[in-house]
Design goal:
The complex is a heterodimer. By secondary structure, chain A is mainly alpha-helical. Chain A is built from 14 helices and no strands. Chain A has helices at residues 11-38, 42-45, 60-68, 71-102, 108-117, 123-136, 143-147, 154-165, 169-177, 182-193, 195-210, 214-219, 228-238, 243-270. Chain B has a single domain (63-302), classed as MetI-like fold. Helix content of chain B is 72%, strand content 0%. In chain B, helix 3 crosses helix 7, helix 5 runs parallel beside helix 10 and helix 7 (166-191) packs across helix 9. The longest helix of chain B has 34 residues, at 73-106. At the A-B interface, helix 1, helix 4, helix 5, helix 6 and helix 10 of A face helix 1, helix 3, helix 4, helix 5 and helix 7 of B.
Chain lengths: 278, 303
């Protein structure tokens, strides 16, 4: 970000600063309100006028969430879904991207075009046949059924190919002269040279998988297979007016995301153009 | 490994081709099974009366398409709602994001990095927790929105349950959720404009408005088109935001906030009419394809 050394304010600047920061405060207010509600006693939640700072702080809502919903299970399912998807998609995307960028073989162009053309077809358009296929191989309401469609991603392949284009061919040739195998060249020269792109892709995949609701909603139906997003949706439906309870559950769900955001803030905001088609 | 025409197969490096295929084919296989095959299936099934609960079905030509476009109430309502959603969200989000980034750029703003992160936070937080908070704020009795309205002497509003307001309440939520994303995109675009142009205009005595109108906006055109279509396409395929905000009331009489993606979901998994669901999926795809083609043409012109 740009640092402005000479900050000489005039009145208009001051007004604009106040306006923007008020707006930003409004943007994050819902989160503050959520945390505040989750820490209140049930009898204080519906107080009128509403209180931003709880009169009495309590963790009772959180304890109750753990009794009523298998939060740990949801966390585990989400984490597993996110980690496996990220590792697989990053691996398959970089290998495919590398090969499409650096090798010359029959049917290269048509294969690449087929992959790229699926990029602009929204998931919602083919989710029904995908579900039917999962039904045919008996993976409905299993972890496998949830996971299988997220091992490859066209956008990742496209993105990694762009990045490998800037890797000089001479590096690869030099390794070949020294007798390195093609696999070795990929793992010890190509991959380390594209580390920042891999990082960007990983963050992107984590963010789309963690927040994925539609596929888990379709494919899983029993509580033990729910990811966090789906578990929360159902939980909120079950305890529809118990605001302390589901704000506590929602707060728990966003803590990992906030930590992730604080650590990778720059990469996430810079990598935003990658997700252009998502 | 020289790049040669398709017919001079001899000049392919054998080892390279072997490596490329061993590495590529398994992954391409996955890709075929989980992407290409379902896409082809959705086209095929859109011409059938397939139902998820029976194994027998027959091809009925364009009947599904004809029925849907001529006299299908659910489809019509969903299409109108989706159009409204996509248009209003896009206009609001693009306008606000542009205004905010222009202020950030033209005025002396303290700690722009922090400010952008605050705007970006709703983008990062996943849909369900965000929607849960908003449902609480929209509560018809104790919601904080109604508390604010009470200052102006306005009685309680059923933000999500009242037919008149539910769509706009969801739009407000989506705009809040997406705004930061487009702010960052516009910011990247603005930083790409050479400072020299603006300095030169300043020396010539141009004020902020003139700089914005005659330098920034024309140079920002490609990014604006990109954002415009991105927001529209995302608006057309919106699902989670609407689903979570209205879960439980989607099937309510009037279908006030039903969108195309939800109608697909409902047809397939609630009414088991998979043939029709696929028809609707193909129609949605054609809309997105149309938008993409227009975008490509306009971007091509803009450069």
């Amino acid at each position: 970000m740009m640092t402005k050394t000479k900050l000489r304010f005039n009145l208009t600047d001051l007004i604009y600063n106040i306006l923007l920061y008020l707006l930003a405060a409004a943007m994050i207010f819902p989160f503050i309100w959520m945390v505040s509600t989750s820490l209140k006693l049930p009898q204080h939640i519906l107080l009128w006028p509403p209180q931003v700072f709880p009169k009495v702080f309590t963790l009772a809502n959180y304890q109750e969430v753990f009794q009523k919903a298998d939060m740990m299970r949801y966390f585990y399912n989400t984490l597993r879904f996110t980690l496996v998807s990220t590792i697989c998609i990053v691996f398959t995307s970089s290998l495919m991207g590398y090969i499409f960028s650096k090798y010359w073989f029959p049917f290269k162009k048509p294969m690449f075009l087929i992959i790229i053309s699926t990029m602009m077809i929204p998931f919602q358009c083919y989710m029904v046949p995908l579900y039917m296929m999962m039904a045919r191989i008996h993976t409905v309401d299993t972890y496998l059924g949830l996971q299988l469609p997220y091992l490859v991603q066209a956008l990742g392949i496209f993105f990694m190919r762009q990045n490998f284009e800037s890797l000089p061919d001479e590096y690869l040739e030099a390794a070949r002269i020294e007798g390195a195998s093609e696999w070795r060249i990929f793992f010890s020269i190509a991959v380390p040279n594209c580390r920042s792109a891999l990082g960007g892709l990983s963050i992107f995949v984590v963010s789309i998988i963690w927040g994925n609701l539609i596929w888990p909603l379709i494919i899983t139906s029993s509580d033990k297979n729910f990811v966090l997003e789906l578990g929360l949706t159902n939980f909120q439906q079950l305890y529809t007016v118990d605001y302390g309870l589901f704000t506590a559950a929602a707060t728990m769900a966003i803590i990992p995301v906030i930590i992730f955001f604080i650590i990778f803030r720059r990469q996430i905001m810079e990598g935003i153009t990658l997700s252009g088609t998502k | 490994m020289k790049k040669v025409g398709v017919f001079s197969v001899k000049s392919y490096n054998k080892d390279h081709v072997k490596f490329a295929y061993t590495a590529l084919l398994p992954i391409f296989g996955l890709f075929f099974i989980f992407r290409i095959w379902p896409i082809l299936e959705s086209f095929r099934l859109s011409f059938t009366n397939h139902s998820i609960v029976s194994t027998k079905y027959s091809y009925i030509g364009f009947q599904n398409y004809i029925n849907m476009l001529s006299n299908d109430q659910d489809f019509r309502i969903s299409l109108i709602n989706t159009l409204l959603f996509a248009t209003l969200i896009t206009i609001a989000v693009i306008f606000l994001a542009l205004a905010i980034t222009l202020v950030m750029d033209r005025r002396k703003i303290i700690n722009i990095g922090l400010l952008q992160s605050l705007f970006f936070l709703p983008v990062v937080i996943s849909v369900v927790p965000s929607a849960i908070i908003w449902k609480w704020m929209y509560d018809p009795q104790y919601g904080i929105f109604n508390y604010v309205l009470s200052f102006f002497g306005i009685g309680s509003v059923g933000w999500l349950v009242d037919k008149r307001y539910s769509m706009y309440s969801i739009i407000l939520f989506v705009v809040w959720k997406w705004l930061g994303y487009f702010i960052v995109i516009f910011w990247v675009g603005l930083k790409g404009i050479p400072g020299l142009y603006i300095e030169a205009a300043k020396i010539d005595g141009a004020d902020d408005w003139q700089i914005i109108r005659s330098i920034i906006l024309p140079l920002l055109k490609p990014i604006m088109f990109f954002s415009l279509f991105l927001a529209t396409i995302r608006g057309f395929t919106i699902f989670s935001e609407v689903y979570v905000m209205t879960v439980g009331s989607q099937g309510a009489p009037g279908n006030i906030v039903k969108v195309l993606t939800y109608d697909i979901y409902e047809r397939a998994f609630l009414y088991y009419k998979t043939g029709q669901a696929n028809t609707e999926g193909v129609i949605l795809f054609l809309i997105v394809l149309g938008l993409t083609i227009i975008q490509g043409k306009m971007l091509g012109k803009g450069e």
